[in-house]
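Design request, tokens follow.
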């Protein structure tokens, strides 16, 4: 990890020319900005990274990661998924910049800046990433903010990509200068030579041939389902909507929640939605969290979900509201490779008990519910099992259904394992990573990332849905404190 070797990393990168069905789905639904599937990260360091050095490091890293200088082009009609091609107008400085906080340079200002940066959409005609170096903190610390589109990588894939611009020591030898523009120009030339074929008709024929070949490679099972489904849609338009619902229920984490309409289902104070964003975080010692979880016979993720559910109950109780069930989701990684980039995950919907109870009892009551939800997602195949069919639907149908199902979800969660040892970014030692998981129409995304001996939960919040974000952060902190105390 300490030195970037393009020849070595190339084997580890996801270098497919087309998006997977799952990635194409995330790309398509983002046409409704409400459903933005991408996540960001705020990495706080003990001192500001050397911006010039980081620029050099990033240029070197980008030269070896084609996704970072490629843009997306649509597939042919709906026969194939979108493709990645080198961007002939790639401009590194569009993606990398430095921002200085105004005085007084508080942590709150930094968190607000991170949330503001997130609301600035990625340009879908350019490579899908941004990095901002943040200076001007009164504490003397620094930060980097990064955003990488979810179609490029899931959380684990992004962590592995980060290895290419992080170091194992503060004074590590910098990488050599690289002619990034030359690398991109050569990639563009190679792509054009590959696609060369003369007139427009020939070019279209080549594209169609590639697309049909891709369709065949999707697998006979998916193609057969797709042909059968599409054939039925003209005679039964409702069937198309039903198929969209099948998948978007999984995307929004609301499969069995859609059928639940009894009193007390869902968080009653978190019904409103907006495109506004607010960032908070809670950090606890990882070794203490492990010990507390182990003492209760629970995994860290089970304990984390119990804390989040308990915090939601506390938040409502403080405001005189009660409910029976919290509609939540957690993520199961299906990654079986060492690739940087790419997507291999399934969101799992789960209904957690929301009555007031001791944390020990909550852990016990949630365990079987979580296990059953995980098993069901594993058995059905999750998103990937239906994405190929649903990608053939009109995007407006998919986005409309996804938005409706997201409205039923109270909170999305994820838990990522980071580095157990200290890492550095251009001379600054990383202190913590505050994740900004995608809300996609939900009130809050709580994504945890361990690093060293710290377990940090990024609380990315819609402040219209949860109108006291700091109050919810306090509820999460209090629930963790109870979990870690002897009096659980």
């Amino acid at each position: 990890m300490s030195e970037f070797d393009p020849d070595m990393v190339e084997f580890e990168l996801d270098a497919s020319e087309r998006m997977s069905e799952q990635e194409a789905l995330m790309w398509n639904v983002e046409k409704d900005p409400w459903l933005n599937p991408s996540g960001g990260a705020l990495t706080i360091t003990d001192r500001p990274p050397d911006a010039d050095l980081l620029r050099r490091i990033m240029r070197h890293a980008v030269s070896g990661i084609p996704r970072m200088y490629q843009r997306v082009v649509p597939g042919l009609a709906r026969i194939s998924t979108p493709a990645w091609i080198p961007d002939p107008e790639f401009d590194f400085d569009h993606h990398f910049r430095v921002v200085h906080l105004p005085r007084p340079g508080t942590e709150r200002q930094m968190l607000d800046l991170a949330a503001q940066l997130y609301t600035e959409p990625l340009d879908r005609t350019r490579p899908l990433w941004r990095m901002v170096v943040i200076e001007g903190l009164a504490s003397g610390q620094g930060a980097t903010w990064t955003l990488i589109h979810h179609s490029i990588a899931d959380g684990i894939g992004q962590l592995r990509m980060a290895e290419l611009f992080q170091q194992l020591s503060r004074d590590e030898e910098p990488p050599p200068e690289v002619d990034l523009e030359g690398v991109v120009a050569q990639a563009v030339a190679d792509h054009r030579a590959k696609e060369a074929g003369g007139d427009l008709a020939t070019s279209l024929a080549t594209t169609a041939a590639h697309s049909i070949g891709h369709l065949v490679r999707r697998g006979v099972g998916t193609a057969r389902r797709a042909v059968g489904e599409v054939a039925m849609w003209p005679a039964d338009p409702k069937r198309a909507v039903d198929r969209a619902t099948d998948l978007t229920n999984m995307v929004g984490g609301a499969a069995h929640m859609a059928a639940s309409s009894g009193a007390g289902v869902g968080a009653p104070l978190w019904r409103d939605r907006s495109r506004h964003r607010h960032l908070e975080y809670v950090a606890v010692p990882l070794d203490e969290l492990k010990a507390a979880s182990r003492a209760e016979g629970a995994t860290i993720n089970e304990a984390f979900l119990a804390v989040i559910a308990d915090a939601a109950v506390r938040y409502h109780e403080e405001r005189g509201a009660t409910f029976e069930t919290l509609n939540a989701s957690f993520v199961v990684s299906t990654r079986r490779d060492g690739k940087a980039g790419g997507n291999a995950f399934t969101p799992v919907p789960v209904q957690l008990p929301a009555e007031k109870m001791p944390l020990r009892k909550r852990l016990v009551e949630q365990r079987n519910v979580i296990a059953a939800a995980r098993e069901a997602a594993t058995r059905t195949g999750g998103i990937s099992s239906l994405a190929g069919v649903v990608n053939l639907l009109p995007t407006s149908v998919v986005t409309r259904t996804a938005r409706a199902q997201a409205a039923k979800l109270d909170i999305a969660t994820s838990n990522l394992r980071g580095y157990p040892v200290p890492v550095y970014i251009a001379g600054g030692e990383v202190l913590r990573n505050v994740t900004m998981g995608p809300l996609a129409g939900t009130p809050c995304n709580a994504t945890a990332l361990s690093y060293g001996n710290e377990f940090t939960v990024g609380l990315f919040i819609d402040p219209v849905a949860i109108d006291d974000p700091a109050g919810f952060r306090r509820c999460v902190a209090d629930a963790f404190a109870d979990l870690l105390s002897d009096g659980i």
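Comment from the thread starter after seeing the answer: thanks! Residues 29 and 399 are 5 Å apart (CA to CA).
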